[in-house]
Amino acid sequence: MQIEVISSVNEAQADRFVHRTVIVIDVLRATSTIVAALAAGAAGVMPVETVLEARSLQCSDHVLAGERFCRKIPGFELGNSPEEFTAEAVGGKRIVLTTTNGTRALHKAMRADCVLAGCLNNASACAGTAADLRRDVVLLCAGSHNEFALEDGLCAGLIISELKQLGSVQSIEMNDLGAAMLGLYRSSDGKLRDMLLGGTTGRRLVKNGHTRDVDHCCQINSSVIVPRLQGDVLA
Fold it and tell me: pTM for the whole thing?
């Protein structure tokens, strides 16, 4: 299996995804939130790139959710905090989600054979699903404000580590960034939460009162849900 890690959405080129499985990673917070929404019983999550597009899809069966610069979008029902996505708020409903980087990355990946949403919460399950699909893998780190985000790189390293432990994956070759992220994750033992809190996105979230989101998002393998893009909806 070939694994390529891409550092941010700005580095993503659609032709690199053809005939591959792409795992989009936005630990803080889009892909973690998508996992939480489906765990709470949402009927699906529709990622859209712009606020205007999200508003155009507003209807009684849809819940508008999203953020810009870590703040909930005015007029939307939910922001981008995983803990907002309770069964009472989203059960049986379709979520229309737009975020600064994560939903852009999901759209960039749409030429892939399969698109998954990965995070620290579902890393093991995500690795297992990717292995079962028997394609080369691209780990697309969404990043933050068009730059690499530490937490996404750590997650990429974790997913590679999980893939290497699977007996169904005979051999793995990875690009240099993948090897670096695997090393970064292996060096994070016991320090993961502190590393997330100390990163640029983590500091921004803490400043805006979202420390609990970081605590939620740094839980390794707390979920077996693997959101998979089906048409334009993750389910």
Answer: 0.97
